[in-house]
Amino acid sequence: MKHGSSNQKILYIVRHGQTDFNAQGILQGKTIDAPLNQTGFQQMESFFEHYKSVPFDLVITSELQRSIQSVQPFITSGIKHIIDERISEFSWGENEGKPLDAIIIHNYKKMLEAWNDGDLEACIPGGESGLSLQNRVKDFGDYLQYLEADKILICTHGRTLKMLIVQLLGWEISQMESIRHSNAAMFELHFNNDTYELVKDNDLSHLPPHLRRDAAWDK
After folding, report:
1. Residue 85 within a domain
2. pLDDT along the chain (219 residues), means of 10
3. Residue 16: active-site member
4. Which residue segment(s) compose the domain that 43 sits in?
5. How much is the pLDDT for 6?
């Protein structure tokens, strides 16, 4: 690793701040590149103030602007930044850009039930399969183990974050729905002896109470 005195890798995985689509319960997915809204910028300013003293070696984001904007102060401070599309948002296919309704929620739940039953090929029409998401996230997780960096800040998206946590901890796909992920929530994982330990889970302690808001669609 980069620092010779350290034998532990620590991942700080944060979900991006709120966008208007989050607040309104509209699915964004991979094709909608929405910026943070005012609340989102306030959330991430608070995140930066809380974590700016951590000596991050590396910042990794998706290519989407809500991911980059959420950790921009760290990037601006000079920390090396990598854009990695393997942690981009899940593709919701024909549902992207649509407000939630009973049909969309029903089809979403059917897809998750299929995944839990082992059918990772299931997807929303025109969207990404569970297998595709699993494969790209697993590849990213393998890549992390070999990076010469002790403290890594990762900013990603809701469904991708769920899959990443499951992959890193070695959980079953069915355990993915136990993971909550509010906007600007932070997950801290420590890597020792080829095993990850989840130290902080959906942590919002860096936010003042009025910014601790679940998105209308926190899935």
Report:
1. yes
2. 56 97 90 96 97 98 98 98 97 91 90 95 95 98 93 97 97 93 96 93 95 61
3. yes
4. 10-92+134-207
5. 47
Active-site residue, from 89, 128, 157, 206? 89
The identity of residue 162, as a single letter, is K
Q: Write down the pTM of the prediction.
A: 0.93
Q: Is residue 186 part of a domain?
A: yes
- The predicted structure's pLDDT at residue 214: 61
In the set 3, 16, 63, 121, the catalytic residue is: 16
Residue carrying structure tokens 């991708």: 160
Domain of 202: which CATH number? 3.40.50.1240
| Helix residue ranges, H only, 54-101 | 65-70, 72-76
Report pLDDT for 219: 45
Residue carrying structure tokens 């998401």: 133
Residue at 4 is within a domain: no
Q: How many Å from the N-terminal Cα to the C-terminal Cα in the chain?
A: 35
Q: Region of 31 please: left (phi>0), alpha (psi -120 to 50) or beta.
A: alpha
How many domains would you assign to the chain?
1
Active site residue 172: no
- Tokens 């090396």 found at: 80
Tell whether 35 is covered by a domain. Answer: yes
